[in-house]
Write a structure and sequence with these properties.
The protein is mainly α. It has helices spanning 10-24, 33-45, 49-62, 67-79, 83-96, 101-113, 117-129, 136-148, 152-165, 170-182, 186-199, 204-216, 220-233, 238-250, 254-267, 272-284, 288-301, 306-318, 322-335, 340-352, 356-369, 374-381, 390-403, 408-420, 424-437, 442-448, 454-470.
């Protein structure tokens, strides 16, 4: 097996090659400790911990008392997922060499991986107190250890210490910015990304990350500019085209958005997400023929792309083609039956087609998945159960009223149905609440209760007269 020694000096290359030849020849060679360290580090750099572990075991047979090699062994155990074995070995090493900062750093790494953060911090601080020379590498390693377990706040604590010592360290700048981005502290993230760019203006990754932050802040003009830098630096950076298209869409520059998505398709003409977004933009522009054309392209590539089936159903619904819309909607639901939007549209279409049982089932499923939208309850109450089942409608609106007691339209509708069954006291109670909440919704009441009841008309007139006096 030919090794790639790019970035390694001749001594490392010679040691690794000689070790490889020994294994190939099934022989036994002698290596100094420093040569074994070269070999082990080489394999660890390649993330080949199995080979690193084998080399370490061989090394310890030749140099069983080497602290350096025992430390390497503990590192490999940590990376192989044996933290407790590593900890036992490190505790034995500590008894022999209690001033070695690496021993305490590695113990801290073990405790961090085990979730004992306080103990990890204690050991990391002890490790830092034992090193009197340049601390940059140790601070960086501690920061990365915390990052690996998702403690971006603690990672930044040590990165900021490193930043104060070495403000031009571009690795620290990048990690600080990236951690702040994960913590959603975007202004801080932007600050450090900009400092990084001042030193490395041609980093496509950093410009891309900046663009994503600007998107999160809804600063889409700046996002577009950032993605344009990415594309200028790296013309094949597909994600930059996609995200630029998204930001242009958010700016309502729909034609430009389609254009950049088409540029993306020049790099990958079978990307279903991009094809779908183009379809969505054409739908936004009311060019339904083109929209369906792109949804069909998506489905030709991925017949299980449920959002394409749903969007196609939406267009057919808007065109009044309810049977066809329901056909495509059922395909979407068969692929994803936990999306409340799918069930809500199904309920509305079934109601329009007078498929009462199916409409009721679909509304119930919608509410089961998401009962936070009062409009769904209102649409549910519009099912024509017939006069003999008016109490069913009242029950729906009463349940909705418990969830949304401040919703004027629900109160108006509930008042109207209560009036229809001559429960005027309850009707007037909800009518009064509705009039106080939003008088402009009064037509909802009038559309249901078309009779003229004196006490109800007096209440409405009294309220409208009071409002006119106020104005």
């Amino acid at each position: 097996m030919e090794e790639n020694f790019e970035g390694y000096n001749e001594e490392v290359a010679a040691s690794v090659s000689r070790y490889r030849n020994m294994l190939k020849n099934k022989d036994s060679y002698y290596f100094d400790v420093f040569e074994f360290e070269y070999i082990i580090d080489f394999f660890m750099d390649k993330n080949d911990f199995k080979a690193a572990g084998k080399a370490t075991d061989y090394a310890l047979n030749q140099h069983p008392h080497s602290i350096e090699l025992q430390i390497k062994k503990s590192q490999i155990l940590i990376n192989q997922g044996f933290p407790l074995k590593a900890l036992r070995l490190l505790e034995r090493i500590e008894k022999i060499e209690s001033s070695n900062h690496t021993v305490f750093y590695l113990q801290g790494a073990v405790y961090s991986s085990l979730g004992n953060i306080n103990k990890a911090i204690e050991l990391f601080e002890l490790s830092l107190s034992l090193i009197f020379e340049i601390k940059e590498d140790l601070l960086y390693n501690i920061a990365m250890t915390f990052k690996q377990v998702g403690r971006y706040d603690l990672s930044n604590k040590y990165l900021l210490k490193l930043y104060r010592i070495s403000p031009d360290d571009d690795s620290a700048l990048y990690e600080l910015a990236n951690n702040y981005q994960k913590l959603e502290e975007y202004e801080q993230s932007i600050r450090f990304y900009k400092e990084y760019i001042a030193q490395n203006p041609f980093s496509s990754t950093v410009w891309f990350n900046l663009g994503r932050i600007y998107q999160n802040l809804e600063k889409h003009e700046l996002a577009v500019q950032a993605f344009e830098y990415v594309i200028a630096i790296e013309p094949d950076y597909k994600a930059a085209y996609f995200q630029k298209g998204i930001s242009l869409y958010e700016k309502e520059e729909y034609v430009e958005s389609i254009s950049i998505f088409e540029d993306y398709l020049e790099l990958d003409n079978e990307d279903t997400e991009t094809l779908f977004h183009i379809g969505e933009i054409y739908a936004k522009l009311f060019d339904y023929q083109k929209a369906i054309e792109y949804y069909d392209k998506v489905l030709a590539l991925d017949n299980e792309f449920e959002d394409a089936w749903f969007s196609k159903a939406v267009i057919l619904y808007e065109q009044g083609k309810y049977v066809d819309a329901l056909y495509y909607l059922k395909k979407a639901i068969n692929l994803e039956d936990e999306d409340p939007d799918f069930w809500n549209l199904s309920a509305i279409i079934c109601r329009k087609l007078d498929f009462i049982d199916e409409a009721e089932k679909a509304f119930k499923k919608t509410i089961e998945l998401d009962n936070s939208n009062p409009n769904i309850w209102i649409e549910y109450s519009k099912i024509n159960f017939g006069h003999t089942k008016i109490y069913k409608t009242i029950n729906i609106l009463s349940e909705a009223n418990e969830l949304f007691e401040d919703n004027a339209e629900i109160n108006f509708r509930l008042a109207a149905y209560l009036a229809l069954i001559h429960n005027f006291d309850a009707a007037k109670l909800h009518l009064k609440q509705a009039l106080q909440q939003d008088v402009t919704k009064l037509p909802a009441f009038r559309s249901i209760y078309t009779q003229k009841n004196e006490s109800i008309e007096d209440l409405i007139s009294q309220f409208l007269g009071t409002e006119q006096t106020k104005n």
